[in-house]
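Case study B.
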Amino acid sequence: MKKLLIAAFAAGMVLPVTALAEIRAFAGATLITVAGPEIPDGVLVIEDGKIRTVGARNVVRIPDGAEVVELEAGSVIMPGIVDTHSHVGEVSGGDRSAPVQPEARALDSLNVRSSGITRALAGGITSVNVMPGSGLLISGQTIYLKLREGDQIMDLVYRFDDGSPAGGLKMANGTNPIGEPPYPGTRAKSAALVRSAYIKAIEYAEKIAGAESEEDRPPRDLAMEALGEVLSGKRMVHFHSHRHDDLLTAIRLRDEFGFRMVLHHTSEAWRVADQIAEAGVPVSLIMIDSPGGKLEALNLEARSAPVLEQAGARVAFHTDDWVSDSRYFLRMAAMGVRAGMSREAALVAMTQAGADMLDIGDRVGSLMPGKDADFVILSGDPLSVYTRVRETWVEGQKRFDLDDPADRLVAEGGFNALTDDDGAAHIHGLGPHRSHAGQGGSR
Amino acid sequence: MNMSKVMIIALTLSIAVSAGAQDLVIRAGTLHTGNGEAIADGVVVIEDGLIRAVGPATEVEIPQQMALIEVPVATPGLIDARSTVGLSGAMNQPHDQDQLEGSAAIQPELRAIDAYNPRERLVQWLREHGVTTLHTGHGPGEIVSGQTLIAKTAGETVDDAVMAPAFGISATLGEGATSHGRKSPGNRSKAVAMLREQLIKAREYAEKQANSEAGEGPSRDLALDALASVLAREMPMIVEVHRHNDIMTALRLAEEFGFDLVLAGAADAQLVMDEIRAAGVPVILHPTMVRAWGGSEMANFSFTTARTLIEAGIPVALQSGYESYVPKTRVVLFEAGLLLGYGVSQDQALEMITLAPARILGIDDRVGSLEPGKHGDLALFDGDPFEYTSHVIGTVIEGRRVSDAVR
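Model:
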């Protein structure tokens, strides 16, 4: 990739070069802004980690002194991908001691040096919702990460307005959380356990609200606090669900308790797309290459993507990383189009739709002035198998470069490419050859 | 192959088939024959299930009375070089999982034909994705798990479908063979010792049989019969193996016992490529989208392995492999498509799921490319076969349209 420093300095002028160097212009690529029509031969100008200008080359004035990166013909720049559901970073959540554990936080388990993070960047992912698995009804608090450089988890977290690390709450129904006691044995019991937990949380919140003094307050309860954040709307519920009736059960629970919710996976969404759209519930889909593998995915159909789109539901994609590797996230959108989704919706589903589902849509998800400079440089069209992710930028910093040998090793695989990358294997139980349904799988 | 020649061979074969049912003409805007450059506006004439003519529409006479299908793109029917589909089913419940018998570590007597379910919905799924030939059977997970078969993806009984009822013996080396509940084999050395013991026993058994008068040989032993077939090179040993040192073990065993080895999986193949090439062993590479994690046997897998092996001249095919969860099977078309971003050309990708597996499976006289005399097996597309945004729009097996699903 050619990098041309435009020496636009008038003779004799002394300018603060360091300040100027923070302005970069990427020129010559087709810009998929997601916020508007695609711009051929566009220019993306970034400054101080933010997007400054987006437009056609003949319209955008590149600031004097900006570092201009002239991209190869055919290149495409799109917004950084938002993965709404991933298990990178060796994440865990609740353990096998109980089916309802909202107190467990993904952030307390995450290894930010995991090559899983680099795998995500290699796939063009810049924001990711890292979740506990689906073996519990409520398996814990998820964590929204911005994949900026960092040595520890707090360097990467998104934050709520109050400064606390942002995330949602992972819930699940259907077969995964069912098991021997203390796990529920049936779907009805599953719903009853969840309802009981939320009713308790409502009472807990009321006691706190009604307390007239410190002594009057109930003792702190981490589980109740987390559910309280769901009930107050601060924390989004990310609900793993597959079968049509399970999807409607999740909506019924949402209606009863008034929480905000994203439905995840949704193998049978094509059967209840109108109800989902009418309920205004967004859906995060994973495109899977064959039906089955578990009973509730037998009627999985790729056309859930177009059927939801046509019903008017908001759709995003996710990797559920290890179920599908972050490095080929782009194929989700292509498979969505294959199933009948529009190109526009498929591109939105990789970016803005997912950002909105994580409540970060005002900061990321499209190429717009003022948004974070999170973007991906592709060798070609994002929906083509011939295309590679060449660079991934987060807040104006290059975080992945295919030309960097260490990055390339993780992107392509090879000897010792996947060190520090073993946690989710335990969540998914994908290792043993002889396992049957009912294992602690994620999907 | 010289495409300017009109490839018409008057077939003298007379095959008893229902008249007309297996006669079909396919005309494709782009015809990938699988053994040369693609033909623009190409025609394939299928008569009695066999290809009679292939060539440009300007040169091949299209018989007027035959049914004609016109499509944007056609390729040879796809071949899944290694799968368990048909023994493993979509439900993933104990009753539809026959790909692995856990009662003993070495059971070469288990026949795939006794478990293959040709009506399994995953077989249909693969058929709808252009797969016409399937090498399936007992899976990885025991030292010797059983036999494999080769079948067409159409046919309502195993007898209808099967091309080779007992193609090879499925074996596993490395953790895959040791990671189960029994005490033995508990590690690699023990697994190999157990396998060598059985192979030596089979050799002695075969020698006794050969040297005995009629009726005086050793009593029949189904397991030793099967291993003796391997030693006689009537069947290959298909060894699922990933780590470089385990690949070397497989090569060492093949040399010691002189059997035909097919490496399957082979995540570390790039690390011991010279040795594989020197041994003249083909590779049925793991699915491109195999799931690996640090410390797993597949941890060193690479999206570039296919390209590297092809460049080294090693015969390499792609497999859908075995999946324990979701998705319950992979689709070789999608596995091959992903390689196009990693230096594999369209022709090479197509070869990995057509002619290369046909050669490895010893069925390239019948399938794998569109040539006169071969089976009329095709996959039909509405665009670039490998783009995920294209669709398979039909599948033809021996001149019969066996799928018109749009996938």
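Residues 2-74 of chain A form a domain with the Urease, subunit C; domain 1 fold (CATH 2.30.40.10). The remaining cases will be described in the next quarterly update.
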